[in-house]
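Students often ask why we bother encoding 3D structure as a string. The short answer is that it lets us treat folding as translation between two languages. Here is a chain of 116 residues written in the first language.
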Amino acid sequence: MSVNSTNRDLVLGHGALVPLLAQFNEHAKLSMLRNATCTLSNFCRGKPQPQFEKVVIEAGVCPRLVELLLHSSPFVLIPALRTVGNIVTGDDIQTHVWLSDQSVVLNWRSVLFNPG
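And here it is in the second language, the structure alphabet:
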């Protein structure tokens, strides 16, 4: 996907985000997780930044994104990290929602203290 924000916004405007977020489930194959995390990371790129982080939070994928930070594949881990970074650097409400979600906090501890 191009970093061009006009193209990104066109794709998002046609409703691509919700079906993409549905792919972040525990039954997804590795290839789907790689593609979904990379696509979500690309949706977060470009200036001006898209205003969809709230939708991502409301969809409940934040705990799953943190779980993906423990993934053995760098093709899943790195885009997940980029996506998390874009969400937590949003507005104060987005940061607060992220930090107040107990499942996110518990999984985040696992990421921080994972020796692997």
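Translate back mentally: The mean pLDDT is 79. Keep this in mind for the problem set.
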